[in-house]
Amino acid sequence: MAHRPIDITPNPRVLVALTRTPILPIDALSELIDNAVDSFRTAATSGDPSAVRQVIIEVPGPAEVDRGEGLIRVRDTGPGLTEDQIANSMRAGYTSKNHFDTLGLFGMGFNIATGKLGRITRVISARAEDDHAVQVTLDLPELMQSQTFSARAEQIEKPTGLRHGTVVEIRGWWPGGDANSGFIRELARMPKKTLRSRLGRRYASLLRPGAANPVVITVNNERCQPFEHCVWSPERFVERRAHGKVPARISFDQVISNARRCLHDGTDFGGQEACPRCGGTESREINHRVYGWVGIQRFDDQNDFGIDLIRNGRAIRQAEKAAFFEFSDETTGRVEREYPVDQQYGRIVGEVHLDQVPVDFQKQHFQQASDEWQEAIGFLRGGSLLPNNWADGEVNDSPVSLLFQGYRKVRNFGRGDMYMGQYNPAKGKADRIPRSVEEDYYRRFLDRVPGYYDDAKWWELVETAGEPPIQVLPECPECGFQNTSTAEECGGCGEVLDGKPCLDTGCGKQILRSATVCPHCGTSQVPTVLLPWKCTFCAAENRAGAERCEACGQVKDAPHPASPEALDSVSSDAEELSADQVAVVLADGKTSSPLDVRVRTTHRPILPAFGQAAVPLVTRADTRQITVYIDPTHAVFTAMGLRPEYLIATEVAQFLHSLHRNLQSRPGHAVAVLAAEVLRKGWGDVVTDSADSVRTAVKSLFDQITERILRAPYADSFYDELDASQQLALADSMIKSGAELTELGRLRATGGYLRYCDRQTVTAFFARHAAGWFDGLVWADPWPSESEAGPLIAGKLQEDLRVKYLRCLEDCASYLRYDQPERLIVVRARAAVDFLVGKLA
Question: Residue 807 phi/psi, 5° resolution?
Fold first, then answer.
């Protein structure tokens, strides 16, 4: 049978179809920058490096684009291209022979990027050795009309100032109604400062002056500044018992494998003489090198942490979290977030170069199924970060795992967990510094202020976190004598430091604030006019002269106990419950004004009215800020297991509902709807507890408890109190752990057998011998003393304290028996474990 060839040349409309590929405007601009960067690298590889490595970008403003004017121009100072090279650059699907040292030369990415931005692309390129430039114009509407793939190419006189290099110009914006019409407008509307900042993050490793071959990128005549991570210096460290000194920054440069790869398609020859994919024999020996650093940011954040993954100078993934902080169990298929777990803030960051790991054609991610990716991640993070998931004898000592073991938690402010703090006299220990201080320090870091750009000033707040401040002694303005802070009169010259005017207007001299008689005129300073007064709490009328309300005991003139004035003095800021700039979409589609939600936890119950039960919270609100005073000891949290975030979100929702009364008739304008959205925006990550994360927290809690109770009173004799089932469970646990049963006698004498007891047995130990667990052994709370409170009262307090902790331990121990616990059980267990972790000594 006769055969004849069939023409399968695609229709020119395929180029327009490519422009429908979903990418962001900054990705399209980056594709053109990548080509410029690749030209510098090609010149260096050929032995003729560019003396000036600069990419000059011009982006029109929104007004120009709306008028159909302006252009995008990307110019580089590279060696320039020949006519054939320009033709290849515009040929969809063209691939160069160099898969290994470039970000991806032209081809499909070039067509997508230029075609999405505009309809007409002009490329002008000049080489130093030529006396002319080459100009090629690609007009998409003209190609579709002529039904051909031909583009105009011509030799022209070199434009002024272009001795060598390449210029790409894009104009002819897509009209309204076209799928791409908004693409250039989105890029034009982006503030140029924001665009430079985002490019500075994406190409930071090339822009830094200390780079091997630094590149200068400008946007509209202003230079892009490289992004810098605010991390601790490598000399800083924490100490951990199992890992010794863990530095705050770990650098590495490792060749983890090598392979002979095809120059045409990058395929591994696998020991064969020819490429198994294309049959070619041209190849290159490629070293799979992983280099860079991972470290600890000087502050933690809900979003700004993670590791930048870089390929040949461009950050393909910024602040990558999933690859390093999530673990997929191959046996169960479950994906578990391992960091951060016990708080929602992270601080592990880094920059890792994966130059030999392939990326997808849109350069949004690395090809995660590739061998190169799997090898790199294995080197950087290993398997699970949690020691509980390690096999017997296994130790994950990868760079990310070492940082995780050293810095996963922030509880001991100061040197303990290497976090900035300030001394709290009320607690007698360090608290974390306010977020406002961190923000101020970070602004100074960005301004490169000495001591803040380096970590000297930051470190001062780490070292001094646990040190009580030196008391300031006020100086007398008259003689300079230093007095105590409570002195009313200077001890040197007698000058009044803290005074008041005499009540006699004829005298009016300053006298000591505590004076009851004026030493100058003899007038009594005690008011003699006494009037009946009304209690601010119970509204009862009281007789003149009464210092306290005869009905409720409220001090005269004291503010209402549930008023902000009264609660401010008996509460403290709760940064972990607060949220900044909370805004939600209302029923009319508009977004509400941002609200700052400040939460303060009270140190006593909140009484709304005399004779009424305490309430969990009260609120003060204005148009910009809501302050919520919340009692964390209220039964709604401790007994019912409700999270404070739910009630806080409801208060914010009620405020928004009342503020926008004009939306009352809209179906979506309901307090419950608003509360759900506020909760998601303000505390979504915090309140979303999975059964597995709670299970991990419970196991971690019991691991910490077990190590501490080995020194508890009765740890050795409690063995005799174990029933038959508990002893059998103990023996079975020892066998599974590989321990010798012959060691049981020694473990019994030292209390070490408790390591192999199940959680119910540990809970039973507490139930019978609770006293030894307090006063800093396990719990920080003191055990009520009979010598201080008497035997009757102390006994009652001891039993109440024991029962409170026992109930929480029982909730945690019983939770581990459930494979698929109901939501209420998860919430109750989370409340119990949070309470107990907060009480650990």
Answer: -60, -40
As given in the structure block, the two tokens for residue 557 are 């003139």
C-alpha distances in Å from residue 292, one per residue of 288, 289, 371, 558? 14, 10, 20, 62
Residue 135, strand partner residues = 124, 154
Task: State both tokens at 168.
Answer: 């790409």
Paired sense of beta strands 335-337 and 421-424, if any: unpaired
Q: Kindly give, in sequence order, each residue whose CB lies less than 8 Å from that of residue 166, ignoring residues fewer than 6 positions away.
A: 35, 36, 39, 75, 76, 78, 80, 81, 123, 124, 125, 126
Helix (H) or strand (E) holding 404: helix 399-407
pLDDT score at 14: 63
39's enclosing H/E stretch is helix 25-45
For the segment 335-379, what is each residue's pLDDT rounded down to a tens digit?
889 999 767 899 999 999 998 898 887 888 999 998 899 999 999
What does pTM read for this prediction?
A: 0.58
How much is the CA Rg of the chain, to the nearest whole Å? 35
Using CB atoms within 10 A of its CB, is residue 137 exposed (0-12), middle (13-18) or buried (19+)?
A: middle
Evaluate whether 758 touches 727 at the Cβ level (below 8 Å): no
Q: Which residue has the tokens 């509880």?
A: 411
- Residue with structure tokens 């990307």? 74
> Can you tell me the distance from the alpha carbon of 380 to that of 413, in angstroms, rounded to the nearest whole number?
28
The values of phi and psi at residue 121, to 5°, are -120, 130
Q: What is the pLDDT of residue 15?
A: 66
- 210 to each of 203, 215, 326, how far by Cα in Å? 13, 11, 33
Residue 525 backbone dihedrals phi, psi, to 5 degrees: -100, 10
The closest of 814, 782, 816 to 798, measured between CA atoms, is 782
DSSP annotation of 755: G
Q: How far apart are CA 468 and CA 424, in angstroms?
A: 8
Both tokens of residue 750? 């030292």
User: What's the pLDDT score for residue 70?
Assistant: 94
Going by the DSSP 8-state scheme, the letter that residue 555 receives in this structure is: B
- The three-point CA angle 490-492-495 to 5° equals 40
Q: Is 604:633 a contact under the CB 8 Å cutoff?
A: no
Residue 267: how many CB atoms within 10 A of its CB? 18
The sign of the torsion formed by the CA atoms of 445, 448, 452, 456 equals: positive
Which residues contact residue 735 at a Cβ distance below 8 angstroms, ignoring those fewer than 6 apart? Answer: 741
Nearest to 645 by CA among 607, 615, 675: 675
List of the chain residues with pLDDT < 70: 1-17, 91-108, 149, 263-265, 342, 528-529, 641, 685-689
Give the pLDDT confidence of 551-596 residue by residue, as tens digits.
Answer: 888 888 888 988 999 888 888 898 888 989 989 888 888 888 899 9
| Distance, CA of 143 to CA of 122 (rounded, Å) | 14
CB 819 within 8 A of CB 701: no
Closest CA to 666 of 588, 766, 729, 582: 588
Question: How far apart are alpha carbons 795 and 771 in whole angstroms?
Answer: 11
390 burial (CB, 10 Å; 0-12 / 13-18 / 19+) is: middle
Q: Cα–Cα distances in Å, from 9 out to 6, 112, 418?
A: 9, 19, 64
Q: How far is CA 150 from the centre of its chain?
A: 51
d(CA 587, CA 582): 16
Tell me the HSE value of 806 on the side-chain side, using a 13 A CA sphere: 15
Q: Note if the bond before 12 is cis, omega within 30 degrees.
A: no
Residue 521, φ and ψ in degrees, nearest 5: -115, -10
Sign of CA dihedral 665, 666, 667, 670: negative
- Looking at this protein, which amino acid is placed at residue 542? N
Contact present, 143 and 166 (Cβ < 8 Å): no
Backbone dihedral angles phi then psi of residue 251, each to the nearest 5 degrees? -100, 155
